[in-house]
């Protein structure tokens, strides 16, 4: 894949994920995080299936040799989404977005600790700079005596979401050694949908028409954003195989 194409797809994907987060944010006051995870995951499935059909890759996308691996990837991913969606109800969207960028930093750290990957000086410098940036964003809030308990919980949830995302990336790094990226994307949506249903006893609500359309839109947009990232995941798969 050409670098410019990869950069373009990544930028479009980021914009779509931010749009998705905005829709979730708009519903956060009325819809529990677990229910939001359900809509986000369930309505991404038709998008992913349609994409697999257009690629004539449906059989590959549904084939798996490691169901347990997909389950654990789904559980970690659902935890990340639930924490992130809960944080959107407690903090402004810009702060959630910025603090969420702790995930790539933690991915480097976890890759070194769990996969034994070497961290070169350039990466270590980037990790340190990134951590400093996250601290700079957090200090004005944490140092503010008027900051409410809910906002502090919001910061904790965002950081927890970032940690779960980093663990998910590390898990995917191992999973794609034997599984296709198409199956990873598809089974994550399916697993996340099923796992989110277990939160239904904790106060799910019947959304009105506007809220339902926002939640469904978040699912569709999230599905498209995931698909745009697949070429880069496939490139990472080739790197893993070569290593």
Describe it for me?
Helices cover 79% and strands 0% of the residues. With 243 residues, it is an all-alpha fold. The longest helix has 34 residues, at 209-242.
Compose a concise summary of this entry.
The chain is mostly helical. The chain is built from eleven helices and no strands.
In whole angstroms, the N-to-C terminal distance is 19 Å
The coarse silhouette is globular
Order of helices and strands: HHHHHHHHHHH
- Ranges with pLDDT <50 over ≥5 residues? 237-243
Mean pLDDT, rounded to whole units?
Answer: 84
Most strands sheet? none
Share of residues in strands: under 5%
Question: What class do helices, strands and sheet pairing give?
Answer: mainly alpha
Rounded radius of gyration (Å): 18 Å
Q: What share of residues is helical?
A: over 70%
DSSP helical segment count: 11
The count of β-strands is 0
Structural descriptors:
243 residues, mainly alpha, 11 helices, globular, disordered C terminus
Topology:
Elements: H1 3-27, H2 33-42, H3 45-54, H4 58-62, H5 67-88, H6 93-100, H7 102-114, H8 121-142, H9 149-175, H10 181-196, H11 209-242
Helix pairs in contact: 1-11, 2-5, 2-10, 2-11, 3-10, 3-11, 5-9, 5-10, 7-8, 7-9
